[in-house]
């Protein structure tokens, strides 16, 4: 998947337009950005330039695959307030000491939508949308599962488990942006659904809408123990596995926390919970342990690997769930 605007684009994020390798257009040619000094302030500028509210992660080491052609920028130093990446400090166009193995990438805050107040679980919360430079909530009038499906898919989850109202995840603040939302369930974003118009409503924050999404990650093959199993992730409409190259406890911590567990006890490889089938989605996963989801971690790019299912990664999570887990199967 590629998203492009105003001389900048994200490439290699597959079906997900809000993440990818950063490429800039200069002197009639697209080229990449080197990851020397690459950080979240730089990523914020890129994401805002592309129309997103901001960035969730700044990635290096060609996390979304190696580009080709010129490496246009190196030693990018943004303070986060610049309008475009070219307004930031850098070594000069085409001046670098990098290879395409150092290509920089970003994960942007998706499509101006977020879930707030879900506690330990990032896949649930009060729905908030970004409009006119400000975050606001959605009213629960007419709020249902079709609407929740659109929200969850927009956030990269397979779909929704529940649509909640009456400020189930706490009352928001600021504007109530949407009311009488009517989705048929197939729209790409909540703003594509019918609604009363931005900011037109007869609600209070006690009517704030929420969702519980299918997490997009699951543990399979752990037998009667739901807190362990082969790691499978949902991407491009299909479940697939994770290769055990570079797989370690920091990566397992992110998986377990994404599933709602406190953390991980062990990171396992060599198909310890049996061989999966279908695509191998992730390889060379490198998390520092603080990421919200495994997709926020560094990796080779979706579907790029040199593995077989005999190398499927698994985890054993610490038990003690803040909520019942329904994303594990035997």
Automatic annotation (TrEMBL):
Key word Translocase present: no
Residues in the signal sequence: none
InterPro entries: SRCR (IPR001190), SRCR-like_dom_sf (IPR036772)
Keywords per UniProt: Disulfide bond, Glycoprotein, Signal
UniProt domain SRCR: residue ranges: 8-109, 113-214, 217-318
Superkingdom to which the source organism belongs: Eukaryota
Transmembrane regions: none
Keyword DNA repair: no
Disulphide bridges, residue numbers: 34-98, 47-108, 78-88, 139-203, 152-213, 183-193, 243-307, 256-317, 287-297
Classification via Gene3D superfamilies: SRCR-like domain
Pfam families: SRCR
GO cellular component, one term: membrane
Protein's recorded name: Deleted in malignant brain tumors 1 protein-like
Source species taxonomy: Eukaryota, Metazoa, Chordata, Cephalochordata, Leptocardii
């Amino acid at each position: 998947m590629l998203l492009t605007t105003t001389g900048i684009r994200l490439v290699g994020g597959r079906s997900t337009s809000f993440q990818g390798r950063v490429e800039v257009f200069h002197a009639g040619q697209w080229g990449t950005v080197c990851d020397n000094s690459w950080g979240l302030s730089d990523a914020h500028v890129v994401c805002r330039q592309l129309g997103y509210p901001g960035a969730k992660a700044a990635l290096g080491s060609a996390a979304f695959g190696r580009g080709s052609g010129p490496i246009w920028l190196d030693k990018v130093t943004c303070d986060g307030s610049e309008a475009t990446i070219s307004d930031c400090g850098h070594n000069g166009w085409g001046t670098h000491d990098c290879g395409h193995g150092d290509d920089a990438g970003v994960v942007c805050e998706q499509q101006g939508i977020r879930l707030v107040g879900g506690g330990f679980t990032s896949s649930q919360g009060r729905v908030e949308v970004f409009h006119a430079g400000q975050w606001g909530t959605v009213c629960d009038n007419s709020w249902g599962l079709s609407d929740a499906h659109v929200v969850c898919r927009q956030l990269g989850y397979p779909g929704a488990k529940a649509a909640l109202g009456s400020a189930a995840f706490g009352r928001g603040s600021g504007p109530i942006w949407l009311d009488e939302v009517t989705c048929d369930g197939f729209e790409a974003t909540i703003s594509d659904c019918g609604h009363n118009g931005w900011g037109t409503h007869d609600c209070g924050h006690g009517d704030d809408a929420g969702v519980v999404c299918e997490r997009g990650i699951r543990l399979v093959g752990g037998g009667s123990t739901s807190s362990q199993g082969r790691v499978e992730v949902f991407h491009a409409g299909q479940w697939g596995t994770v290769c055990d190259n570079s797989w370690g406890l920091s990566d397992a911590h992110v998986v377990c926390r994404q599933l709602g567990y406190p953390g991980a006890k062990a990171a396992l490889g060599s198909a310890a919970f049996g061989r999966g089938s279908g695509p191998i989605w992730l390889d060379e996963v490198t998390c520092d342990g603080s990421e919200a989801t495994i997709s926020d971690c560094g990796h080779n790019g979706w579907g790029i690997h040199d593995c077989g299912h005999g190398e499927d990664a698994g985890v054993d999570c610490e038990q003690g769930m803040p909520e019942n887990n329904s994303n594990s199967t035997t």
